[in-house]
Design a protein that fits this description.
This protein has 15 helices and 15 strands. The chain is an alpha/beta fold. It has two domains: 4-173, NAD(P)-binding Rossmann-like Domain (Rossmann fold, 3-Layer(aba) Sandwich), CATH 3.40.50; 175-397 and 422-460, 2-Layer Sandwich (Dihydrodipicolinate Reductase, domain 2), CATH 3.30.360. A nine-stranded mixed β-sheet has the order 13-12-11-7-10-9-8-14-15. The protein has a six-stranded parallel β-sheet with strand order 3-2-1-4-5-6, with helices on both faces. Strand 2, helix 4 (88-93) and strand 3 form a beta-alpha-beta unit. The relative contact order is 0.16.
Length: 476
């Protein structure tokens, strides 16, 4: 039994179905223009009134970054495990901010006080929180990857356009040095006619060494946890601690694996500035430790993107797994590592092997890079010296990812990783995750957005059907 104090802290019960029904039938907020001019938003300081959904673990790190901007007025905190150890830092930082365990209750009670929403929940529950927020005219900062399925991402892109909100996916390197370098180098023709990209993430992940022959056994639900709301649109699962606090990333039902976690940090700029769009083929070249429930112990995936105008076709090969090291140029040298890159969900970057990164093979030049904001280096170093005088000046970032989003809420900037940019990247990765699930070579038609050679894989584009009463989020 939850204590009276906790009940009071997280808000009173609500008629969830009637709340959503009212939004769907009346469109009360969805027809409003988002409040870009914050003088009219009830914040006398001109700060963005921000609600935070998911306040522990990675969510806490994002809250810290938003707090440091000085541009935020925190108006609501929401977490399904409110009061658990991983939420205490946020609660101690913001002791007077109203608290909720159900994001629907938060919006029902406080929608008029909210300008923007930060979403730092597990991958599979990004979608319902983000869709409800956008339908209410709220700007959204959503951690990566945007959604759990190809269809969810498609609907999120459409909602961004429909509700005219500022949306930002949380691949924070997209506002730092690598972003501006890649943009400048492609515009200047330094990076051109790319035909091959090798991307890799070989650090230890939570599922490495795991062997499962079924779902985890039922355990008592902690008193602090609202398990039903934690599940959001997912099908019913009995509670087990092996599903929460980052361990959700191991499971196809809840996470997007190493690819969804780190692909958005490693080849995001290549995807955007080479205009890769959606692939026509994704092949599971190699899978080790295949499981229908958890991600493989290692995988090699080949993404084949078609020609775009005068740009040639590109094959992007992804390598994950501790021993599944990629083939690299002989003159590769030391890895490109940024000390500010956070470690994977458990453990640390293994610098004794190959830290996460990429190699890009262009016309006459090869480039090596790392993850997040790390800049590219030209191989071999002699060529870098020869071309130095031709390299364009790299502009400094006018705003980090969080400031960029907040300024976009105020109409001062455009989000750099908005859903129109991040969506096709996440959809390409979603097809790769389907290839991991079915262990096959998939043929994809970007025009119809269908997998044409594999019936089950094509059905997986839509994701798992939502639980009863949660299908309404697909209609927002």
């Amino acid at each position: 039994m939850k204590s009276k104090k906790l009940k009071a802290a997280v808000g009173q019960p609500m008629q969830r179905r009637s709340f959503l029904k009212g939004i769907l039938t009346a469109g009360t907020f969805s027809l409003l223009t988002p409040r870009l001019v914050l003088a009219a938003a009830g914040s006398p300081t001109g700060k963005v009134n921000l609600a935070c959904v998911g306040i522990g673990n990675r969510g806490w790190e994002d809250i810290e970054m938003f707090h440091k901007t000085g541009l935020v007025n925190f108006v609501a905190l929401c977490d399904t495990d409110m009061g658990a150890p991983h939420t205490l830092k946020a609660l101690n930082l913001l002791p007077e901010v109203p608290r909720f365990q159900d994001f629907r209750k938060m919006f029902d009670k406080m929608s008029k006080d909210i300008d923007a929403v930060f979403i730092g929940v597990p991958d599979f529950s990004h979608f319902p929180v983000t869709m409800l927020a956008m339908s209410l005219g709220k700007h959204v900062y959503c951690e990566k990857p945007m959604g759990h399925s190809f269809r969810q991402v498609e609907l999120m892109m459409a909602a961004e356009k429909k509700y005219k909100v500022a949306a930002q996916m949380g691949n924070q390197g997209h506002s730092e040095a690598n972003y501006f370098q890649f943009k400048a180098w492609t515009e200047a023709g330094i990076i051109k006619n790319v035909t091959k990209i090798t991307a890799f993430m070989n650090s230890k992940r939570r599922w490495h060494g795991m062997k499962v022959d079924g779902l985890l056994p039922e355990q008592p639900v902690p008193e602090s946890l609202d398990w039903d709301t934690w599940l959001t649109t997912a099908q019913q699962h009995a509670y087990n601690q092996g599903y929460i606090n980052g361990d959700w990333r191991s499971w196809f039902d809840f996470g997007n694996g190493a690819l969804g976690d780190w692909g958005a940090h490693i080849f995001d700029t290549a995807h955007e500035f080479l205009h890769l769009g959606l692939p026509t083929e994704v092949e599971a070249v190699k899978l080790e430790g295949y499981s229908p429930l958890i991600f493989p112990q290692a995988s090699t995936l080949a993404f084949r993107f078609p020609a775009r105008g005068e740009q040639p076709p590109v094959e992007l090969t992804w390598y994950d797994g501790q021993e599944n090291l990629p083939p690299l140029p002989e003159n590769m040298g030391e890895s490109v590592v940024d000390a500010n890159i956070p470690p994977p969900s458990k453990g640390a970057i293994d610098t004794k092997k190959r830290p996460p990164g990429k190699v890009i093979y262009g016309d006459g030049l090869t480039f090596k890079g790392g993850s997040h904001a790390t800049t590219l280096q030209i191989l071999p170093s002699e060529k870098a010296k020869d071309i130095q005088s031709k390299l364009p000046k790299i502009p400094k970032s006018p705003s980090n990812h969080y400031v960029n989003f907040l300024r976009a809420c105020k109409g001062e900037e455009k989000t750099r990783s908005n859903f129109a940019v991040a969506g096709p990247l996440c959809q390409a990765m979603a097809i790769g995750i389907i290839a991991q699930r079915v262990n096959a070579k998939l043929t994809f038609d970007p025009a119809t957005k269908q997998i044409t050679n594999h019936k089950l894989a094509n059905e997986l584009l839509a994701g798992v059907p939502p639980r009863k009463d949660w299908e309404q989020f697909y209609k927002l």
